[in-house]
Amino acid sequence: MRCLFALSADFGEFVTASLMSRGQPFERLFALPPQLAAAAGDLPHAAYRRAEDISALAQSARADLVVLGSGYLFAINNLFGPDELAALVERLRASGVALASTDPWLRLRALRPQARFSIHSARRRGVDPAQSERIAALQRRLEAILGKLPHLVVVPAPLAEGVFNPKFASSFREETETETDTWLFVLGREDLAIAGDAFFEHLEARLRELLAVRKNRIRFIAPARVGEFLGRAFAGEPRIEHLPFCDFQRFESEVRGARIVAYWNALSASALYCLYHGVAPVFFGHGHQAAVLEGLLEHAVEHVYRGRPPVFLDLGARLEPDASALLERHRIAGWLATLRADYEKLPDPSSVMERLCHR
After folding, report:
1. In this structure, what CATH number is given to the domain that contains residue 141?
2. What distance in Å separates the CA atoms of residue 262 and residue 259, rounded to the nearest whole number?
3. Does 114 fall in a domain?
């Protein structure tokens, strides 16, 4: 079986495709826009610029299955519009290729089509009603194009084929004491934009608490603006490092090597790396996705987190700087192991994809 993963410009869609495909008994190829192709390294990939390029790649690769990751994001990422997407779907289906899509909304829009979008505007300093309605109309059009396709996800979700890939990671790391505790902070551009006026003041206070514990090391994967702040506030501090850019392999390696990973987005796909590698995640915010779509956070807690919410911390309040004490206080290791056990009940990706190809 040969699978082509045609991805939008969203980093999380690569995470999803990687979780579906690594170590599986089928050939895989990633079709990537220029924004993601720069981070692909030696992964089997080809770049595309138009929707027509994806169908040409599917034909040249003799793909049995094409996974659109995600069909709901190509237009939002300004790659190509819904008309081009509809034509792509028709071309692929006419060629006899099996076709599926991922869904950043985890099928919430299919379950609750009345759920409202709230698109924030920096100029308006709040929600832009006109832009919110445009996005809602776009998603209605996309649902009409994609709604009848099989939907593949890497979490348990209704109206979708959820999969778990036991070949992705060699083992689930057990929680142990370490000589050095690395705290990895992952902050995307969209979440920084809604972080609030006191963000950097609170962040500096929390980082100084962490630095008071000698064994702590701090790494940031965050926009350049965060790196500029760190350079001013912590000039010469050797235990803080900022990475303005990571390729796919380096990002996963950073997560795997951390004791705690701190996110500002509870729906970040890369938090699933923590699930697979046994690394503790904590969250300083619900994130931009939850702010955009009504009910998405509650939907994620019910399905992605199996009714057991993750640990949400307040950046404006004192942080427990001892990693072991923080993990014990919130019982994160047990929570993560229980979550992992639930995910392991999902079918493996190859069995689901084989079924889609034979459908």
Report:
1. 3.40.50.20
2. 10
3. yes
Q: What is the pLDDT of residues 110-134, one digit of tens each?
A: 999 999 999 877 666 678 899 999 9
**In sequence order, what DSSP letters do the residues of 214-225 get, joined into one string?**
TTEEEEEE--HH
Listed in sequence order, the residues at least 6 apart from 214 whose beta carbon sits closer than 8 Å to its beta carbon are none
The answer to whether residue 171 is domain-embedded is no
Taking alpha carbons only, the member of 85, 83, 63 closest to residue 73 is 85
The residues facing 4 across adjacent strands are 29, 66
Residue 165 makes CB contacts below 8 A (sequence gap 6+) with 19, 20, 21, 22, 23, 24, 154, 276, 348, 349
Let me know whether 275 and 209 are in one domain.
yes
Query: pLDDT for 53-99, tens place per residue?
Result: 999 999 999 999 999 999 999 999 999 999 999 999 999 999 999 99
Residues whose CB falls within 8 Å of the CB of residue 100, separated by 6 or more in sequence, listed in order = 65, 66, 67, 68, 149, 150, 151, 152, 161, 356
Rounded Cα gap, residues 63 and 96, in angstroms: 10
Using CA atoms, how far apart are residues 222 and 238, in angstroms rounded to an integer?
A: 18
